[in-house]
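TL;DR need structure tokens for one chain.
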Amino acid sequence: MNKLSIKKGDEVKLLSGKDKNKRGKIIRVLPKYSRIIVEGLNVHFRFSRPKKAGEKGQRMELPGPLNISKVMLICPHCGKPTRVAHEVSDEGNFRRCKKCGKTLN
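>> reply
TL;DR here they are.
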């Protein structure tokens, strides 16, 4: 399993693809595949068939998985896209913003 620098609930910026420069919140992390699912980005459409007679089918919008290398974490303190530094101390392991130096929760 891969160790990732971002977690569920973090805000990220997309670096490439059809939704380039858009921001979104991570709703699911798939560390086994190095992929994440971001709310409102990489949206695909799924169609459901009607279950009963007289019922209509639906078109559902579902966010698809993105490779982790295509996104960059947005620091909640300075609001800029940043790389993540890992800091080990007596209290535990922390993530730190490379731009402003503050710890990320």
